[in-house]
Structure formats: C-alpha cells, structure tokens
C-alpha cells in the first residue's frame, strides 16, 4: 500500500492506523512523487488526496492508471462536491472516502476495493453520484481543459514562473506562455491572478 498526502501529520496517522493490517511500502507528499513511487514500488492499493502540490490527485490518478493499472486507487479527501467525485471515478478511482469519516470506514473501503468492488463514502449518496456520472458537462476545470493545461494551471497557481514551469514539464517557456493564453481564453478569464483564484476555488491548490 502506498499513501499520498501533503500533510505529514495526516500521512503519519494513516500509516500508523494501517500498518498493523497492511504492508505500507511508502508515502509521498505530492502528486509527482506519488507517480514516481508507484512506478518503482508497484503497490496493490494507493490512497491519495485530491489537493496535492506539483500534481493534483485527479491528474496523478490518470497517470497511475497507465503506469500501474493493477493498483486500486482510493481517494481520501475533504472534497465531496459532484465535480470531484465524478472526475475521481472517471480517472480510475475505486474508492472515495471523506477525511471526516471514521477510521473504520477507510478499512471497509480498502477491503471493498480489494474484492473488486467500488466504495463510496455514505456522505456521497448513490443518486448524487448517478447524477454526477451521467452529466455530460463539467463545471470544474477537469472537463474543459487538456491534461497539459491542467498541469500548467496548477503550477501557475503554486507560484511558479514560466521558466520554472517549463523546466518542470520539460517544455520551452514560450510553450508555457501559449498554454496560459489558452487557459485564460478557455476559462473566460483575463490575468494570471484570475487563474490562481480559479485554481484555488476548484480545489487544484489550497487557498
């Protein structure tokens, strides 16, 4: 089992709670570190948050489905909005647990996904999820943007300049500027500051 959360106390608490019943092979504090660790450690189960630095959990999940398709992904998050539930499931999630839930619920979720089932926290009702999954549109950033645009959006919101983003993504600064211009156009915004506010409002980064 691999754990990913950018709050060290949360990660330590999860590890302490689960180690007696499961083999915890590692932890990661951001989405890119999670993807790297998963490729190296090949865990059976991955617990991940949605709001993580460098690469958010939704984008990390999309990469993990290709990199370690056998791994079961369980989101452990504060987000219970329809957009996040829908995109987590579409990205390959097998479980969705609220951080407000009791610890025993996480164990239940792990056992359910290990048996090939999908587990959703009772805080998210079935009708709510059915409606979310049947919706053809997304009010959040996930449905409207390309994967690279979402990466650029998150890194802009984390305060990286064009040169730093270019180095992180292995592209040119001019390419980064192109993606930023497409972002403001696609989202109906005007400035970099607007992009930052949008990313915070939709949970890509912490406010």
Protein described:
The chain is α/β, with parallel strands linked by helices and 207 residues long. It has helices at residues 8-18, 31-41, 57-67, 82-90, 103-114, 126-134, 141-144, 147-157, 162-169, 173-187, 192-201; strands spanning 2-4, 26-28, 45-48, 72-77, 93-98, 119-120. The protein folds into 2 domains: 2-134, Response regulator (Rossmann fold, 3-Layer(aba) Sandwich), CATH 3.40.50; 141-201, Orthogonal Bundle (Arc Repressor Mutant, subunit A). The chain has a 6-stranded parallel β-sheet, with helices on both faces. Strand 4, helix 4 and strand 5 (93-98) form a beta-alpha-beta unit. The longest helix is centred in the C-terminal third of the chain and has 15 residues, at 173-187. It is globular. It starts with a strand and ends in a 6-residue tail after the last helix.
Which structural class fits the helix and strand makeup?
alpha/beta
Tell me the quaternary state. single chain
Tally of individual helices: 11
β-sheet strand percentage: 5-15%
Low-confidence stretches: none
CATH class division of the largest domain: Alpha Beta
Give the CA-CA distance, first to last residue: 29 Å
Number of strands: 6
User: From the alpha-carbon coordinates, what is the Rg to the nearest angstrom?
Assistant: 17 Å
What is the element string, with H for helices and E for strands?
A: EHEHEHEHEHEHHHHHH
- Mean pLDDT level: 87
How much helix is in the residues? Answer: 40-55%
| Most strands sheet | 6 strands, parallel
CATH architecture of the largest domain: 3-Layer(aba) Sandwich
Shape: globular
- Tell me the strand order in the biggest sheet: 2-1-3-4-5-6
State the domain count: 2
């Amino acid at each position: 089992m691999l754990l990913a959360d950018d709050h060290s106390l949360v990660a330590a608490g999860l590890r302490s709670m689960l180690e007696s019943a499961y083999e915890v092979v590692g932890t990661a504090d951001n989405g890119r570190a999670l993807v790297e660790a998963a490729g190296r450690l090949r865990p059976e189960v991955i617990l991940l948050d949605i709001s993580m630095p460098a690469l958010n959990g939704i984008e990390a999940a999309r990469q993990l489905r290709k990199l370690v398709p056998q791994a079961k992904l369980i989101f452990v998050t504060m987000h219970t909005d329809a957009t996040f539930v829908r995109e987590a499931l579409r990205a390959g999630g097998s479980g969705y647990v609220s951080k407000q839930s009791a610890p025993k619920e996480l164990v239940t979720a792990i056992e359910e996904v290990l048996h090939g089932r999908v587990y959703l926290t009772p805080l998210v009702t079935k009708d709510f999820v059915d409606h979310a999954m049947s919706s053809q549109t997304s009010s959040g950033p996930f449905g409207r943007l390309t994967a690279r645009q979402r990466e650029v959006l998150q890194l802009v919101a984390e305060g990286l300049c064009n040169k730093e983003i270019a180095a992180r993504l292995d592209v040119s600064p001019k390419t980064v500027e192109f993606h930023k211009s497409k972002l403001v156009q696609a989202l109906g915004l005007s400035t970099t500051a607007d992009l930052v506010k949008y990313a915070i409002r939709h949970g890509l980064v912490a406010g």
